[in-house]
Amino acid sequence: MPKIVDHEDRRRLIARAFQEQVAELGFATTTYARVAASANISVGLIQHYFADRNALIEFAYHDLVQRRDERIEAGVAAGEKKRWPIRRILDDVVRELLPLDEQRRREHRVAHQLQLAAAQDPHLAALAVGAHEALQQRVVTAVRNGKECGEVESGVNAPIAAVRIISTVYGLADILSLRTDRQPDRHHQVLDPILATVFTGECRRSKARLHALAGG
Q: How far apart are CA 54 and CA 49, in angstroms?
């Protein structure tokens, strides 16, 4: 009986080998031959699944963002189940952008390489912009939800607040990527004051839960 091939698994295998090569060698140096050797497949198989280099880049970048977003969504779901304040949930969300472990360091390097190449390639620029806008919208939504539950003042401009938070996270990620001494807790010293300028109140739902637990 012929072996059943999962074509999406094959595409992900190739895409993740591409990510690894970009993270290690850079965008310009990553070739089909290097990707094929890393994935233990033939160059012809890469060409079978991806019509051209742009198709591979797009799939690889979407795969990277999807895996990051899946972690974010799992963290948000866990935080909501525990009825954490939105600020605490958002802190977990933005930490997924920081290179605090090997997977996130690889993701940061790939995203950085893509952004460098995007300056000369409109197709790559569109990918990078789309991923950034989707992430920023998540933060905008968090700020707006914060207004509803009382953590954020009603007059706060949610899009501007989101830009401040995301810009701080991006800058911190770049700094952490250059450090050889890994100090995961240091990021709180930078992020906490920024989040505190936006999330200045206390979540009403958290107060209600504490009141109920106290038997009030």
A: 12
- CA gap 162, 67 in Å, rounded: 22
Tokens of 38: 């890393």
Distance CA 165, CA 168 (A): 5
For residues 3 and 76, what is the distance between their CA atoms, to the nearest angstrom? Answer: 39
Condensed to tens digits (0 to 9), the pLDDT of residues 99-125 reads 988 899 999 999 888 888 888 888 888
Q: Could you give all domains of the chain from N- to C-terminal order, each with its CATH number?
A: 83-213 (1.10.357)
What pTM does this model have? 0.82
142 class by beta-carbon count within 10 Å (0-12 exposed, 13-18 middle, 19+ buried): buried
Selection from 34, 42, 131, 151 nearest residue 86 by Cα = 151
